[in-house]
Amino acid sequence: MNTWLLPLGDLTPEQSRIVEMSPDQNRVIFGAAGSGKTQILIHRADYLAKTYSVPPERFRVFVFTNVIKEYIKSGTKFLELPEETVSTFDHWCYLLYQDNISRKPPCIRGRNGRNRIDFEKIRRSIQKLLRKKPALQKILDFALVDEGQDLSPESFEILSLAARHVTVFADSMQQIFADGASEHHILKMLGIKKRNATLLAAYRNSPYVAQLASYFIADENLRSQYLSQINMHQQTKERPLCFVARSFKDEMDRLAEIIRQRQLMNERVGIIIPTNQQLFGYSKGLQERGIEIEKTVPPKNPGSSIDFEFGNMTPKIATYHSAKGLTFDSVLLPRLINNSFQWINDDDLRRRLIFVGIARATQWVYISTETGKEIADMNILRIAERNHHLTIQDGRTPPTKAQTQFTDDDFDAL
Fold first, then answer.
1. pLDDT value at position 333?
2. Quick one: pLDDT at residue 414?
3. 31 strand-pairing partners
4. How far is CA 155 from CA 29, 124, 342, in A?
5. What local confidence, expressed as pLDDT, does residue 410 receive?
6. Three-state helix/strand/coil letters over the chain
7. Band of the pLDDT at 343, cuts 50, 70, 90?
8. How many CB atoms within 10 Å of residue 351?
9. CA pair distance 204, 328, nearest whole angstrom
10. What pLDDT does residue 91 have?
11. What share of the chain in percent tops pLDDT 70?
């Protein structure tokens, strides 16, 4: 079976130790991008279910989005974990709300004028319900949580009330929701004094991908810590590339060209876009240029079929939020212009988003922007270029081989 999941025997001793931690207390595990948190999550679910004979209805694995749920499906099938045991936290709360409060969920008017489910209100209602009804408490023997830093604070009280044991995997450097819970709040709500483990090595990002990503970590200590954890072999000496297009058409044409090049190299390609509107626009533009592409968007209704499959080599396009947890050989980040991020007022949040996007890549990163519309963080990319960690190419000048390859000195410095 084609799966991203490593066999249990291939995990590191530290990863295996976390898989087999006793459920006698709640656990909080921190680890950088690429440190194997999702690998451990799935193996731990399998270990706890089989070791303690927990039936499927008594445990849940909570992932951040329906897209990552589809991504990890091959891993859960490989371990024969029932599909219904993996869910987003909001969907689980939604089902609990329907069963115990009302079949009609609360809705709010969206920006497009359409009603959408008010998941925030549902979470608050479930929080109150579990406080008042002890019979509904501890309905799960265990719950495992991926990307815990982006769950809302009340989510952890819900988890502590609903499950006998909770293991949370998190990374504060990848927090991309302003209302995500802090480490202090997670620990407090789960009744533990400190994190149980920190994964000290990252195995996904190659050194040059990690170097570029590190420029978007504001804290110098965290940046140094992140770089010190990189334990991935550099397969090629190809530098990340930033293309400054003369126009939107120029940017689209080059993006299509880059995708064709990476496909000839038999790479899994991910295109990561700031907004859903851009996702559909770019999908259409690439299809017009003869590029077959799959939009990784969740189904409109639970149980509906999806139009993408992570088991094939077709390039995938996703928003930054949907791409969390995904991995590709090459990641392409087009349209890094100010207008793409005008919905974000926080510079740190925007940079964390870009960090998350870059960190989806194992081997190579491509960035594109447009002359006169460059993102405010272009100064960061200029610094990366001066330090020989990025090539910035003007759309009017083709790159030389020397620009796109590391020298031996550059490579050794990584």
1. 97
2. 35
3. 199
4. 17, 9, 28
5. 38
6. CCCCCCCHHHCCHHHHHHHCCCCCCCEEEEECCCCCHHHHHHHHHHHHHHHCCCCHHHEEEEECCHHHHHHCHHHHHHCCCCHHHEEEHHHHHHHHHHHHCCCCCCEEECCCCCEEECHHHHHHHHHHHHHHCHHHCCCECEEEECCHHHCCHHHHHHHHHHECCEEEEECHHHCCCCCCCCHHHHHHHHCCCCCCEEECCECCCCHHHHHHHHCCCCCHHHHHHHHHCECCCCCCCECCEEEEECCHHHHHHHHHHHHHHHHHCCCCEEEEECCHHHHHHHHHHHHHCCCCCEECCCCCCCCCCCCCCCCCCCCEEEEHHHHCCCCEEEEEECCCEHHHHCCCCCHHHHHHHHHHHHCCEEEEEEEEEECCCECCCHHHHHHHHHCCCCEEEECCCCCCHHHHECCHHHHHHC
7. confident
8. 19
9. 10
10. 93
11. 89
User: What is the rounded average pLDDT for all residues in the chain?
Assistant: 87
Q: What's residue 238's pLDDT?
A: 86
The pLDDT of residue 50 is above 90: yes
pLDDT of residue 310: 79
Q: How far apart are the first and last CA of the chain?
A: 35
| Distance of alpha carbon 296 from alpha carbon 283, whole angstroms | 11
Burial status of residue 102 (CB atoms within 10 A of its CB: 0-12, 13-18, 19 or more)? exposed
Cβ-in-10-Å burial (0-12, 13-18, 19+) of 31 comes to buried
**pTM for the predicted model, two decimal places:** 0.82
